């Protein structure tokens, strides 16, 4: 069989020198025709610069370098001036956008607080209260706690390792919230920082309540206005000289004996059976009434019924200046305590739950 087109097979293989590819015959002897490298005319290929043209090329090159240099200088000056403009020009000519007091940092902080509000509402409000007033968990909006106890580092640590960090109790109801913990919790690092920003937000600022997913402002269906909230921390708060620091373990406040309040009676081990009895109760982290009445200048009894299961409450009476004149024993409900209160002069006295500052009222002695 052959590979040659148009050739019939003869049944005989061709000789080796007849197989494809056919060797190329040697080139014929003789002179080789010259091949021009360029096809254009020699006059066109001639490149010669006159002195005038050469000087012009030099001038153009020098000008181009100067233009490039000036362009670089302009860019550098623009970047430098814009940097100082971002930091804020002196004399109030511009407001800084970067740095510790920059508007951009403030905007990011506001966003973090507003997102942290949603994280708190979804995960923390059930135990610590809508306004941090406490309930199943301890109070979070007390100024003495926010001043020195609930620091950013402390909050981050307790969210990473749970309530056992605070009191050494491995059965604490305070869960482990960070997804970096062991076992991992439900909140990532960004949500942890947003929650801390919310808890440490100053009370001097007003924030917008936003939709958890869309981040659009929420509109009150009744008033038609945008819902807002304020932070809890008073940036101007300073503890009184000699004030007892808040304990590292919040349970210590409930178990430790309360110091005798200045200028008034303290809790007595027994009560006068003939004394006037003033009844008040607590349910759902709220007093049953915000108005009490007692006789002036004579001892009386506050019969306090705590109906909140496993939640610490008490009744503390203060004077007009805010100093404590009586502080009842803290105890978890359900249960009842009779508080023996010493004589009070005629007048109005605010009363409050020591652990839940939102529980307030007025006692009138007359």
- Beta-strand share of residues: 5-15%
Regions with pLDDT < 50 over 5+ consecutive residues?
A: 255-269
Query: How would you classify the quaternary structure?
Result: single chain
What gap, in angstroms, lies between the N and C termini? 133 Å
- Globally, the shape reads elongated
Helix segment tally = 9
What characterizes the major β-sheet? Answer: 5 strands, mixed
Residues in helices, as a percent range: 25-40%
Overall mean confidence score, pLDDT: 79
Q: Supply the CATH class of one domain.
A: Mainly Alpha
Tell me what the structure shows.
The chain is of the alpha+beta class and 366 residues long. Among the domains are: 128 residues, Orthogonal Bundle (Cytochrome Bc1 Complex, Chain D, domain 2), CATH 1.10.760; 107 residues, Cupredoxins -  blue copper proteins (Immunoglobulin-like, Sandwich), CATH 2.60.40.420. Helices cover 28% and strands 15% of the residues. It has nine helices and twelve strands. The strands form four sheets. Strands 4-12-11-7-8 form a five-stranded mixed beta sheet, with no helix packed on it. Helix 3 crosses helix 8 and helix 6 crosses helix 8. The protein is elongated and about 135 Å long. It starts with 41 loop residues before the first helix and ends with a strand. About 4% of the residues have low confidence.
List the helices and strands and how they pair.
Elements: H1 42-45, H2 51-87, H3 103-123, H4 125-128, H5 143-149, H6 152-161, H7 164-167, H8 189-199, E1 206-208, E2 228-230, H9 250-255, E3 276-282, E4 291-294, E5 300-306, E6 312-313, E7 316-318, E8 324-327, E9 331-332, E10 335-341, E11 347-352, E12 360-365
Parallel strand pairs: 3-5, 4-12
Antiparallel strand pairs: 1-2, 5-10, 6-9, 7-8, 7-11, 11-12
Helix pairs in contact: 3-8, 6-8
């Amino acid at each position: 069989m052959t590979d040659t087109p148009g050739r019939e097979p003869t049944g005989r293989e061709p000789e080796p020198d007849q197989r494809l590819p056919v060797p190329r015959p040697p080139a014929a002897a003789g002179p080789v025709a010259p091949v021009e490298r360029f096809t254009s005319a020699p006059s066109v290929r001639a490149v010669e610069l006159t002195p005038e043209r050469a000087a012009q090329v030099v001038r153009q090159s020098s000008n181009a370098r100067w233009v490039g240099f000036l362009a670089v200088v302009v860019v550098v000056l623009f970047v430098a001036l814009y940097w100082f403009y971002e930091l804020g020009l002196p004399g109030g000519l511009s407001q800084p956008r970067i740095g510790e007091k920059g508007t951009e940092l403030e905007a990011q902080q506001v966003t973090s607080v507003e997102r942290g509000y949603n994280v708190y509402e979804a995960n923390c409000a059930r135990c610590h209260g809508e306004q941090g007033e406490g309930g199943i968990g301890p109070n979070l909006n007390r100024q003495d706690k926010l001043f020195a106890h609930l620091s950013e580092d402390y909050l981050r640590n307790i969210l990473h390792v749970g309530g056992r960090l605070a009191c050494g109790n491995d059965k604490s109801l305070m869960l482990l919230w960070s997804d970096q913990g062991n076992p991992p919790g439900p909140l990532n690092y960004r949500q942890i920082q947003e929650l801390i920003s919310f808890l440490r937000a100053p009370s001097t600022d007003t924030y917008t309540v936003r939709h958890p997913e869309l981040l659009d402002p929420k509109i009150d269906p009744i008033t038609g206005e945008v819902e807002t909230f304020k932070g809890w921390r008073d940036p101007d708060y300073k503890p009184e000289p000699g004030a007892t620091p808040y304990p590292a373990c919040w349970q210590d406040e409930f178990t430790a004996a309360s110091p005798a309040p200045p200028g008034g009676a303290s809790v007595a081990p027994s009560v006068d059976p003939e004394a006037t009895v003033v009844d008040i109760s607590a349910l759902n982290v709220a007093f049953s009434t915000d108005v009490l009445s007692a006789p002036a200048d004579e001892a009386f009894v506050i019969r306090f019924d705590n109906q909140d299961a496993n939640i610490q409450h008490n009744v503390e009476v203060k004077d007009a200046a805010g100093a404590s004149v009586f502080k009842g024993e803290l105890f978890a409900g359900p249960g009842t305590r009779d508080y023996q209160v010493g004589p009070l002069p005629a007048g109005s006295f605010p009363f409050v739950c020591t652990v839940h500052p939102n529980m307030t009222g007025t006692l009138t002695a007359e």
